Amino acid sequence: DGGITQSPKYLFRKEGQNVTLSCEQNLNHDAMYWYRQDPGQGLRLIYYSQIVNDFQKGDIAEGYSVSREKKESFPLTVTSAQKNPTAFYLCASSIPGGNGGDTQYFGPGTRLTVL
Amino acid sequence: RKEVEQDPGPFNVPEGATVAFNCTYSNSASQSFFWYRQDCRKEPKLLMSVYSSGNEDGRFTAQLNRASQYISLLIRDSKLSDSATYLCVVNLNNNAGNMLTFGGGTRLMVKP
Questions:
Q1: I need a surface site. Which of A8, A36, A56, B81 has the fewest CB within 10 A?
Q2: What pLDDT does A99 receive?
Q3: Cα radius of gyration (chain A)
């Protein structure tokens, strides 16, 4: 089946540890994105990549890092520098759409809790 | 002022009711618009795109008013399964790429 997968679904981390969240897609999409969602709030963009080996900071990139070595994969590392890492992390990818916009499709998310 | 604003709700409605959500956006250069649905603790899923001429998909109707910078979603004959959070999403689609800005969502609860 085609789609976007994220793993793990739930992740617990001790303070001071780095952790990497996985995002894989087999939709042949060029662009991929990482968002963070806090309870009762909208999604905020962390990083995005429009093409392999290139990525850009979003609105809240501090304390995070990414890589895009393959088209299918866009892992996100939450570093110990991120002050409030507990959140729901969503990965998305996009295809060109009509009406001037690109539609984004989301993976199932990873819920990270820092203990 | 937030870039995309929505009433967080919750909107509590009985089954069969018609309910409408509005969303306002601040950037007049925004080019495309969407409604996403998000169930509790799940990922957002595209409900429908919003076109300038308005569009309808079954019980759902979306409209865009560029002059007033707002988007609406109308749900007719509400079902229990419509209970979810509805996210208004705006795409600036400028030279920086396909940048979506999300509203905080409006929570809908349909009761029997």
A1: B81
A2: 45
A3: 14
Residues of A in contact with B93 (CB under 8 A): 100-102
Q: What percent of chain B has pLDDT over 70?
A: 94
B49 touches chain A (CB under 8 A): yes
Q: What is the DSSP letter of A67?
A: -
Q: Cα(B9)–Cα(B55) distance, rounded to whole angstroms?
A: 24
User: Which has more pLDDT, A90 or A39?
Assistant: A90
| Residue B96 CB partners (closer than 8 Å, separation 6+) | A56
B23 Ramachandran zone, left/alpha/beta (phi>0; psi -120 to 50): beta
The residue behind tokens 């208004």 is B88
With an 8 Å Cβ cutoff, are A100 and B87 in contact? no
**Subunit contact B44:A43, Cβ cutoff 8 A:** yes
Cα separation, B112 vs B43, whole angstroms: 25
Tokens 């707002």 sit on residue = B70
CB-CB neighbors (< 8 A) of A94 in chain B: 98
Q: Which residues of B59-74 are buried (b: 16+ CB within 10 A; e: fewer)?
A: ebbbbbeeeeebbbbe
What is the nearest CA distance from B93 to chain A, expressed in angstroms? 7
